[in-house]
Amino acid sequence: MEILIEELKTTHQKTLQETDTQLRFTLESLESAVEFVSAMSEDEEMMFQILNEWKDSLHEEKRDITIKKSQKDYHRVLSKVGKHLVSLPSNEIPFLTSKKLERELIDQLIAEHLYRIGDFELADQFVQDSGSKIPEGFRGLMVQMHQILNQLDQRDISSALNWVHQTLQLREKDSVKEKEVKKKLIQETSKNKKEIKMEKEIEIKKEEEKEIEIEIEKDEEQDEKEKGKGKENSQKNNTQQKQIIKRTHSFEFKLHKAFYLNILLRNEIKEAIKYSQKWFKKFALTHMKEIKQLAGCLVYSNDFAKRRFPELFDGSVWLQLHSEFIEIYCLVAEIPSHSPLELLCQAGESAVSVLKKVSGLIPIKTGDELPMEIPVANNFKFHSSFICPVSKERSTQKNPPVLLKCGHVISKSSMKTLLENGKTKFKCPYCPVITNSQIDCIEIKF
Amino acid sequence: MNLQKSLIQPCFEQLSRRLHKQYSLLNKTLAASFKILYSLPKNQNVGCEKIVEQMKKEIKRLSKLQKDLNNYSKDDQLIIKKMQLRLRYHLSLLQVTQKNKTKNEEENEKKKEKENEKEKEKENDKEIKKENETKEEKNMEKEKDKDIEIEKEKEMIIEEKTEKEIEKEKDTKFFQDQVKLRKLELNRKLTEYMFRKGYNKTGAMLTEKHQFLKQLVDQSLFLQGKKVSVSLSKYDLSVPLKWCLINRSKLKKIDSRFEFQLKKQQFIEIMRKGNRKQAINYARKNFPPWVEKCFPEIKRVMGLLAFPTPNEQTSIPIEEKEAFEILPKRYQLLYGEHSWRKLNKLFQREHVVLFGLSESPSIEVEFKAGICAVKTASCHSLHKKIQSTKEKKTEEQKDLEMEKEKKKKNEKDLLLKNFDLLKENKNINTNDNNDGVDRNTNCPTCHPVVNKIAKNYPRNLITHSLIICPLSGQIMTPDNPPMIFPNGNAYSLDEMKKMAEQNNGIVTDIKTNQKFKFTQLRKAFIV
């Protein structure tokens, strides 16, 4: 294809030149004839002689035919290109054609995608043009997210900190009891200052945390017993809240860390110490190792520190912050952290060629499994699935995977087939260990 | 995806159309002027001044022809360069997608890609500057020789500049190039979608932001198409007929019947007003060439002559159906809105197929292919259960109902009786979103809007087990195998180790908040 188009280019230039020169010749001869004739305007006989001579020469040369012929090559190559294009396979995949019902939904998704990128003008224009609806509040969420991200890119952590404190406050309203216990802990720890004592406190805190957890467990068991919609949700939310609190907590630490490193880069050691004294207390329990590292950086000079900890000083900390913030923000807001449109289009790039091949051979029914596997990278896999190595079936709730004594896992149905005539013991298909189906097996939920 | 056809065919069609124009222009002028020149009078009766005047006229005409051809060819050259650019873009995209599969050839392809990127940016700059140049020249109407010289000078300057840029580009990382390419491709698809659907303002905004997209998206094509479809919606047949005339030869190649459909509609419109004679004349003129392919349709349309026309009943607008209830249904349909809509659809399809594009915008096709690749049974099952219940219920009610159904199934299961975990466990396989685990809110097919679309598409076949740790979100490997709790839940070894270290050897099951000792966990080997 490339060769053809290059050929096209060269022939085009050639033909242009040729037609040009031919036309030029005709014009020249015409003009000279006009000159002669006008010069000879007095002598009419001479004039007509010259004219006739000139006409004869025109007939001989047949310039018009040569001009037309000069276009020939270009035509030829162009038609070649056309034939080649026709021979290329079409881009149609029959079962993926667009349907009416999907159009609005796809418009919605595109609007969401545009908001996520941060291009608000474009997104608003699109919403106007297409008339698509977005879930309420989505636009506001994205605006806030991008404001904070812009500030982060300029190495300003104030708005991010505000957001972190807000979310922590909201989440901690639910777990009030935790707060009260924490207050007690903080009161106890405020007396001790040295590191060794901090370690002891850590141990004490661990024990106290266990007590807290047991208390929480009791609460949750009560919740389990009570049937009711709100309380079931609070149970699920508790585990979710814990996760969120943990992650925002560590994110806050990273914010402070990045700012601290920035101060260090400017060689303002006193300021760095003050900053760390102010903010790093909270994180003593969870991030002690990192705090030690950062404190150690105070001692090194700038160049040495850069060599010793290159990953801290080359600006990658801020890039990581950027992507982590997006993830956490979306976690808290309960929306996916990457635009679903973008992810699916990426996955679809390689899928399209496979689908085209197959749809020509086998009719694909919707709602079922594909007849062949589309290879997909690991970052597109979000759900667990277990395939029994014996029967090659996907495990479901009716047919869960079963853990045998030896640690191998097969599906329940294949276990049943291995059991003959009401016996309870059988041999694992992979290793010669005998398992008792009633005692040793556990059904697994992935 | 084989973009080659969709990228290059529009340019090719443009080129061939222009060539056609040029050639016909050339032929006409040559024939006319040479005719006159050959027939210059030999007699002395005609004044020599007139002859001289005629010759001067021909000089003017031929020199005009020369200029026109030159102007045409300049634009042609731009189009050819566009084609080359698009080819290179397509090739570099292919390399990018293939790289995800073969990691071994990275280094060789790095170099190739860098060269491609540099060439692209070279040509990008060249073309933008050349486009500006050509516009200026058209306005000024300078002579050709001077123009060519000026162009050469500017080319020299451009080449110097790009060499400096190349030196700067040597430091850019390979990954950044890949990311940029991907973004560009996504933007290209989005702009194509905008123009196809007629969202012209957003499309214009997108092309303004990313100037390179103007080279890659055929805006004019879609605008033309829009004009025709707008006129069809206004029940006006003149614009579509013109369009057919222009593209007649290509429509023949595709074997399209669009022109016949238009003429059929014209016949119907004449009949609607009641002019039978006019209608018959029209049919005699226009239908014979289509007899081979479309005879049954012709027969049916002519059958309209046998029935009273809407006008003869009462004067009614197009939408009213009551007046022609006398007619059998087939003929009613011909008179109604339905045939206009059919026409519009047919046009959309033909218009796109002519230029080698796919029927549906490429973003839709890739998006749905992605659904087929990413969708799993667990993404879909929540939707199934929602379908069985009424859709007005809230999510909490749905969860309750699901739990009840599952309880009945699980009552027989001895192992699970002891635990009050039924509620939480039921939700794991259906919708991981409610699980208190963060990773799976990210699954794109679980997104509510995508889910609606995804129910119509098949899911990917899975041949190997893949277990994801609910805590860390990482895929479990033989180095990081799942540890099974006595209640059946599984988490990765690394996470359990961490938890045990922090809690004196006691691990808690996050889903049920039960506590066990680390030693009670059993390792599972997934084949």
UniProtKB/TrEMBL annotation, chain A:
Residues in coiled coil: none
Location of region: Disordered: 215-242
PROSITE patterns xref list: LISH, ZF_RING_GID
Domain annotation RING-Gid-type: ranges: 388-431
Comp. bias regions, Basic and acidic residues: 224-234
Localization per record: Cytoplasm
RING-Gid-type ZnF: 388-431
Organism domain of life: Eukaryota
Name of the protein this chain belongs to: RING-Gid-type domain-containing protein
InterPro entries: CRA_dom, CTLH/CRA, Fyv10_fam, LisH, Rmd5_dRing, ZF_RING_GID, Znf-RING_euk, Znf_RING/FYVE/PHD
Transmembrane segments annotated in the record for this chain: none
UniProtKB/TrEMBL annotation, chain B:
InterPro entries named in the record: CRA_dom, CTLH/CRA, CTLH_C, Fyv10_fam, ZF_RING_GID
CTLH domain span: 241-278
Keywords, in A-Z order: Cytoplasm, Metal-binding, Transferase, Zinc, Zinc-finger
Cell location: Cytoplasm
Predominant location category: cytoplasm
Any GO molecular function: transferase activity
Zinc finger (RING-Gid-type): 443-512
Region described as Disordered: 98-146, 388-407
Domain spans labelled RING-Gid-type: 443-512
Keyword NAD: no
Compositionally biased tracts (Basic and acidic residues): 102-146
Protein name per Swiss-Prot or TrEMBL: E3 ubiquitin-protein transferase maea
